[in-house]
Amino acid sequence: MLYFQNDKTHHPAVLDMQSDLRKGKISRREFLRFATLLGVSATTAGFMAGCGNQPAAPSTPTPSPIKRGGVMKIGTALQDVSHPARLSWIESANVLRQVAEYLTETGADGITRPWLLERWEANEDVTMWTLFLNKGIKFNNGQDFTVDDVIFNFEQWLDPTIESSMGDLLSYLSPTNIERLDDYTIRLHLDSPQIGIPEHLFHYPALIMSREFEGDFIKQPLGTGPFTLAEYTLGDQAVCKRRSDYWHKGADGAPLPYLDELIYIELEVEDRIEAIQGGGIDTLYTPTPQDWKDLKDVPDVSVYDVSTAQTFVLRMRVDQPPWNDVRVRQALKLCQDRQKILDGSYSGQGELGIDAHVAPIHPAYCEKPIPKYDPEKAKALLAEAGYPDGLQVKLTTKNDRSEPEMSRILRNLAAPAGFDIELNIIEPAKYWEQWTEVELGITTWTHRPLGTMVLSLAYTSDKEGKPVSWNETHWVDEEFNTLLGQAERTLDIPKRREIMCQLEDIMQTRGPIGISYWRKLWTIIRTEFKNVRAHPTAYDLFYDVWKDV
């Protein structure tokens, strides 16, 4: 332990966090997450946290002996994709991530590790990050992976004509502030401090393309990943075949992947149970609670679960009446009986939420009381806002998950307060065509490992003061933006939590959303597949999964 205390190579904040850990001010999990973000390896962070020589590994112990070969069939939705930087859905990202890779990887345990990167370093005020690339990696066309590929991708992400959500996430970085040090080293000079760089580099549109990439991945599937793309037929299937010269080694010291082939099959939700029971598929994308109920006790099927920051967001467009009145927004939030909504729409499988987009699983989450269902107070607020006889509104959402049940329960709960809610439940594709435009909706949001990530993506404005591209509520709050900027550069975890407390208060009192619960997620897969783990973002990390046949 003294070695680490005297090691000058670590970011100075890591030693402060180690002291806070010893004093009980932060948890071991919090220490591990932030020490690794500041460039400490998972193994070293484990030593510093008093965990012996065990890294914070995301997977269960690998059974032995490992077997090679076999095919995995995944039931999913296949979507129209072109430029990975414009990805908006996890399903399509899961296919592409088999072929292309990320600079970092955030595991199922929430720990972010280098992937295409060998390591990274940050300066004291986290305004300068140096990224060191692994050497000897090749794209599947034989081209060497170098810093020029990384610079190309940063330029793509930051190009407003590409319209990537990475541009909003990396708003603290200008293209002119990317410095090439050598073939395998790059330095980022940030416009403002940012703790979350390694996490941001695993945001699902951040797949690394070859500098030869011309804009359509299906036509030009170049990547450094463990598989090659043999077929991508919209509405039918995608086939990924094992790459024989993949750079990463497995637990047995031999090159990954273990499986020969992944087949992603377009499958309707209502067909999935029969398909997995009959062997038509081996696993499925984000099982529903009904899937979990139907399959959890089926022989030859294994179920892995994980707590997440995935949720259904009740969102209001604050630039449109009546939602531009904070009293109306507060009234609708008070109509949530959160336990009843969780039980009725998700079989009770989750954690109750507050009306702020920060989850208990997030580091620096500030615990607050769960708001109570109060239709009488909601009714009084509506009257104060000028609606003494109640208010008619339309709620638009999609029909592929728990949104219909959630909508119907909310409609009944809100009626005593004076809300007359008309339901407009539509096909997913139709909803996503207008998700930022509907006045009142329920939108599914996936997990992000840092609470500040989703806050930046969904509740802030650009440099001109306009809502960022994924800000579906059009809510802009100057105090919120200022505090969020402070949180993103605050290394001290207790101080960061104090700021998060203020951010959560602002969202609850005058923010644009209601969150009843955070949903549990399952990976349901046939038992012959080994070394499987459930990822909170529903990422398919199959490079080291093998089939026992």
Strand order of the largest sheet: 8-9-10-1-11
- CATH architectural arrangement of the largest domain: Roll
Shape: globular
> What is the CATH topology descriptor of the largest domain?
Dipeptide-binding Protein, domain 3
Q: Evaluate the radius of gyration.
A: 23 Å
Number of helices: 18
Structural class: alpha+beta
Helical content class? 25-40%
Weakly predicted, low-confidence segments: 1-8, 52-61
Q: Quick one: CATH superfamily of the largest domain?
A: Dipeptide-binding Protein, Domain 3
Q: What's the CATH first level of the largest domain?
A: Alpha Beta
Q: Strand-residue fraction?
A: 15-25%
What would you say this structure looks like, in words?
With 549 residues, the protein is of the alpha+beta class. The chain has four domains: 2-48, no CATH class; 100-200, Dipeptide-binding Protein, Domain 1 (Dipeptide-binding Protein, domain 1); 227-306 and 521-547, D-Maltodextrin-Binding Protein, domain 2, CATH 3.40.190; 311-519, Dipeptide-binding Protein, domain 3, CATH 3.10.105. The chain contains 18 helices and 21 strands. It has a five-stranded mixed β-sheet with strand order 8-9-10-1-11, sandwiched between helices. Strands 4-5-7-6 form a four-stranded antiparallel β-sheet, with helices on one face. A four-stranded antiparallel β-sheet has the order 14-18-13-17. A hairpin with a 5-residue loop joins strand 2 and strand 3 (112-114). Helix 2 packs antiparallel against helix 3 (28-37) and helix 17 runs antiparallel to helix 18. It is globular and about 70 Å long.
